[in-house]
Amino acid sequence: MNQRIEDYALIGDLMTTALVGRDGSIDWLCLPRFDSGACFAALLGDEENGHWRIAPAVAPAGTGCTRRGYVGDSLVLESIWETDEGTVKVTDFMPQRDVAPDVVRIVEGLSGAVPMAATIRLRFDYGAVVPWVRRSDGHRVAVAGPDSTWLRSEPPVETWGEDKSTRSEFTVEAGERVAFVLTWHASHEPRPDLIDPYEALEQSLEDWRAWSEQCLYDGPYREAVMRSLITLKALTYAPTGGIVAAPTTSLPEEIGGVRNWDYRYCWLRDSTLTLGSLLQTGFLDEARAWREWLLRAVAGDPADLQIMYGIAGERRIPETDLPWLAGYESSAPVRVGNAAVDQLQLDVYGEVIDSLYLARTAGLPAEPHAWQINVALLRFVADNWHRPDEGLWEVRGPRRHFVHSKVMAWVAADRAVRTLEANPEIDGNIERWRTMRDEVHRDVCEKGFDPVRGTFTQSYGSTELDAATLLIPRVGFLPPDDPRVIGTVDAVRRELGHGGLVRRYSTEGPTVDGLPGAEGTFLACSFWLADALLMTGREKEARELFERLLELRNDVGLLAEEYDPVGGRQLGNFPQAFSHIGLVGTALALGGSWPVTAGVPVAGG
Asked: What SS3 string covers 491-509?
């Protein structure tokens, strides 16, 4: 039986992550990278697809710990179990790696004498491959094809093989510690050097302490902001600076449904909001690394710009199904890769140009070729903004003239004009971009606005609404006090609201996305509504909505992509960068420091 999505906590080493359940089981781990095959995939199937559980022997499978939390501003997780025999703590973390990835689990007795049980069931290639396991030099070594893992404990505890798993039982008394270390390496390479698990723990805490001290934010909701920033850091692939949308694939947007996607890649549309959050809170190194990843990823023919890339900028992300995995709570299919990579989504051009504009205005060191990339992207937008596209929600139905896509084309032209006005020494056809900006603005206001209902619509000629139109005042397309903005905010809240939160768009009747079924409320959109309420002068309502969203975080401060107000549970891939970026942005706004992305002067008209 699957645990709820919110029952998981995150650990990671800035190249991959693992999900640790309240029951002490690691049910998801991809090695050696975020986008590698999983060696523990019980999250999307069952225990036979791989997991690693350490818990008191008296705790039946599925039984959760008494309490848990991260150690300070770190990604080191502590789970406390209180039993009749005594109390025990399990500390889980992944030290930042030198060569190979390690998962460390330290069991420590706090009182009494607690019998413990451990089961590790390795299954490479997303639960499909059972490795050959042997003993070597005090380790349990599992090998299959390109993958190899080494498991050891300090001090050694007896292990045995049973039911294609490795098991152990031991007792910890107060003051005693037993550490387990699982190390992965390519099977054709020699075993990496061993780490000292206790030294690695101290070093990990020091690494996170040093990093978190860079945070400049000291306003309201700081604990929530800091945890969200730590989560964004955990989703960063350190060698390249790319930030994955989430570390999981195929966690469903509807339990039992087919809306299950792979989010272990980097989306361009996240770039501006991510960059703004990092810059505003003082993490300049991460902001610079993300900007550099962005410039490398988009280099090339603008006509070939993709909406997403691999963590090192890979372009090929073919989508396939994994039929041997039943899916989270029977939500099939389980997908690896993402076919939306081939879609035309014109809004990403505006988001990339806005990101580069933000980086320049925020004072990041200029890259000589950044403006040339800007110009190439602008020329493509100028020639193609009239076209229909799949839009930011990556619909798998017919292309449409999505209002948000057109607004972001306006953003592209607007940021070019502002750049040239502030830097007259830069070569550029400012009049062309002014003309385009005005043309797009007129087109959206004439074709994308419903004067009867007083709201912008999802697409030209449509009566449907879209939560993305909440961003219109934030990007500067119209001022917040414009009646069309206020009408849009009210209409979205009224027609897309559900349980006090906001859906992306309607999934009732014939859907724009071409998919059956429904989905939960979209958390990032709910943060956008809070921003829009604040911008339109309704601070009390904005704060109430934000604090309601904070209550939806799990016990360790994490948010998935969506939330089901009826079932009272999180949905979608987890944890979701977009949700945590929204949290940071709204907290900054409510604290009186608008995210730098909202600091652009608004247009008239």
From this structure: HHHHHHEECCEECCCCCCC
Whether residue 212 contacts residue 230, with contact meaning beta carbons closer than 8 Å, is answered with yes
Position 55 scores a pLDDT of 97
Q: Which of 97, 103, 90, 91 is nearest to 152 (CA)?
A: 103
State the Cα–Cα distance between residues 493 and 515, nearest whole angstrom: 24
DSSP 407: H
pLDDT of 514 above 80: no
Continuous segment of H or E residues that includes residue 116: strand 102-121
Instruction: Give pLDDT tens digits for 227-275.
Output: 999 999 999 999 999 999 999 999 999 999 999 999 999 998 887 788 8
Cβ–Cβ under 8 Å, residues 311 and 240 = yes
| Average of per-residue pLDDT values in the chain | 93
How many other CB atoms are found less than 10 A from the CB of residue 60?
A: 7
Q: In the prediction, which pLDDT does 515 show?
A: 73
Torsions phi, psi of 312, nearest 5? -110, 10
Beta-strand relationship, 102-121 and 86-93 = antiparallel
CA 34 to chain centre: 12
Q: CA 397, 400, 406, 407 torsion: positive or negative?
A: negative
Residues 125, 321, 581: CA angle, nearest 5 degrees: 85
Supply the pLDDT for residue 605. 33
Predicted confidence at residue 604, as pLDDT, reads 34
Q: Are 36 and 54 in contact (CB under 8 A)?
A: no
How many alpha carbons fall within 13 Å on the CB side of residue 503?
Answer: 21
Nearest Cα neighbor of 550 from 254, 76, 227, 253 is 227
Calpha distance 229→237 (Å, rounded)? 14
Rounded Cα distance, 188 and 179, in Å: 27
Give me 346's structure tokens.
């014109």
Classify residue 173 by burial, with Cβ atoms within 10 Å: 0-12, 13-18, 19+: middle
CB atoms within 10 A of CB 361: 16
Rounded to an integer, what distance in angstroms lies between the CA atom of residue 470 and that of residue 485?
A: 8
The whole-angstrom separation of Cα 122 and Cα 127 is: 8
Element (H, E) at 487: helix 483-496
| pLDDT one-digit tens code per residue, 44-91 | 999 999 999 999 998 877 789 999 999 999 999 999 999 999 999 999
Residue 320 CA: distances (Å) to CA of 199, 317, 336: 41, 10, 5
| Residue whose C-alpha is closest to residue 177's, from 198, 201, 203, 205 | 198
Rama region for 589: left / alpha / beta (φ>0; ψ in -120 to 50; rest): alpha
Residue-wise pLDDT tens digits, 408-426: 999 999 999 999 999 888 8
Q: pLDDT digit string (tens) for 364-413? A: 887 878 888 989 999 999 999 999 999 888 877 789 999 999 999 999 99
What pLDDT does residue 598 have? Answer: 44
Closest CA to 426 of 441, 436, 416: 416
